Amino acid sequence: MTTDSRTRGTFGQGWLCAPITGTASGHVDNARVDEFRQQGGEQLVKSMALKAMELSRQRALAVSEALRGRYKDIDASRVEVVGRGWEEPAGPDSETNRRVEVQWFTLE
To answer: What is the pTM of this model?
Structure first.
């Protein structure tokens, strides 16, 4: 897990006391969708899309668990884990699309 300047301040003192919830959204790349379509048509694409959703959910779960391991006060119920599959590409290359996005929300 890396931390850049945009996230360093997020976990400062006192943040755990605030009513915060988060979402970890996992994503996978879509590089092989055309290959799946050629090999087995739309039925194979649908089958592989379901597997991609599960893989992306597992990816998000791993990040959520790493965060909870590092920040012991995070309750698992405060972080929603979601698998998005390949439906929301961030760019044209596979590396960019294999990612987990974590968003924190303050409840007011």
So the answer is: 0.79
